[in-house]
Amino acid sequence: MTAEPLMRMRLRVEQDIFVVRQLGREVARSVGLETQDQTRVATALSEVARVLLTVGHTDVTFTIETIGVPTLHVAMAHPGGGDTARLAEQLQQVGRLVDTMEVDDDGTGTVVRMARRLPSGTSLLTPDRMDEIRTGLAQHVPGTPLDELAVQNQQLISALDEVRAQRDDLARLNAELEETNRGVMALYNQLSEELEETNRGVVALYAELDEKSAQLAAASEAKSRFLANVSHELRAPVTAIIGLGRLLTDSGSDDLTNEQHRQVDLIRGSATDLLTLVNGLLDLAKAEAGRIEPTWSEVDLKAVFGQLRGTLRPLATRPEVDFIVEEPGVPTLRSDEVLLAQVLRNLLTNAIKFTESGSVRLSVHQTDGDAEFVVSDTGYGIPPELQERVFEEFYQVPGSKPVSGKGTGLGLPYARRLAGILGGALRVDSTPGEGSTFTLRLPLTS
């Protein structure tokens, strides 16, 4: 069990880099770390703070883990997301100053976590001692940047004295101290200039990102218009082909040979597949262009489930697959009945296509004020690294083949967009060889 945090602070300006360095050293001293380890912890904190402050304010939390090996933990978080891999590479050298360092994105921002094991004697960190440390840290008054420079200089002097204690005299030590002072000041000035240059680069990068975002939005809008126009123009001739094929095979038309029947059926089947694809493209283009406006009303889920059970049962014709639509655990919710039914129909149709044996099941229950619709199957399953890609247009999992019908790769992307329009979200959990579970979560009230 992790103890209550020792101390928290927020870094906002460059000056706070010195403050967090001093506070880190004070925390390390209070919990029993040796002088060199205090310096390592303080240096690691200041270096990470310098990097994180370039992208926004940073919250710092100090905690002691007393279970098992006593350990000092430091978490440094800022609300903006980013390239965690690049940040980890930047801090690779800093990670050598502590036992462990991790950089990750917890969904609300980037977090850098550091840990340093404490000496065995720290088992005396009783709750009363921890309270004393918290009180002392709360009363700690940060020094000025010059004070911190003086402390750093003293640490350097101590290190030099330990290494060369047998050879250096007081005069040489004073000369080295003076040289160190000049070097530290020069380094401080250099770091300040680099920080200023980095800030200018970040501003320029944000401007470029805004420009790229505008270009991407324009390209996306153009793509949606193109899909909508092309799909609309294709529907008429494709529908005509299907109609002509039906006329050719009608009982009132001239008799066809078996070969002609086969060819006409092939033409009709291909045209039907093409019409399905065109309709999918048109629906997706409408969703992307924001042309779908929900019609909110109280939806009777029992009626919706009954309709889905009746219209989709003819698709589940294989005896090896049980098609199960459970009685809804949520009687009603406020949503768009047509769009909701479309999402569930797409999910169920997709499950039936890729399930060779076992079951396809639809259920709904209430969770934390929301309704969760669950469509589960015992089909091929989806590898973890591909589970988000199935929501991309035209993408199909390599090696998976529909047991019945044909897939276009548009049903799941369209279903996720409709889920967003309805104010909810669609996710998938799957295990290859065992099946998949698609969960649609919607608010009970719009």
From TrEMBL:
Signal sequence range: none
Domain Histidine kinase: 229-446
Pfam families on file: HATPase_c, HisKA
Enzyme Commission code(s) on record: 2.7.13.3
Chief localisation class: membrane
Keywords in alphabetical order: ATP-binding, Coiled coil, Kinase, Nucleotide-binding, Phosphoprotein, Transferase, Two-component regulatory system
Reaction catalysed by this enzyme: ATP + protein L-histidine = ADP + protein N-phospho-L-histidine
Subcellular location, record wording: Cell membrane
Coiled coil: 146-208
GO molecular function, one term: ATP binding
Keyword Coiled coil included in the entry's annotation: yes
InterPro entries reported for this sequence: HATPase_C_sf, HATPase_dom, His_kinase_dom, HisK_dim/P_dom, HisK_dim/P_sf, Sensor_HK_Regulatory, Sig_transdc_His_kin-like_C
Name of this chain's protein: histidine kinase
Source organism of this protein record: Actinoplanes subglobosus
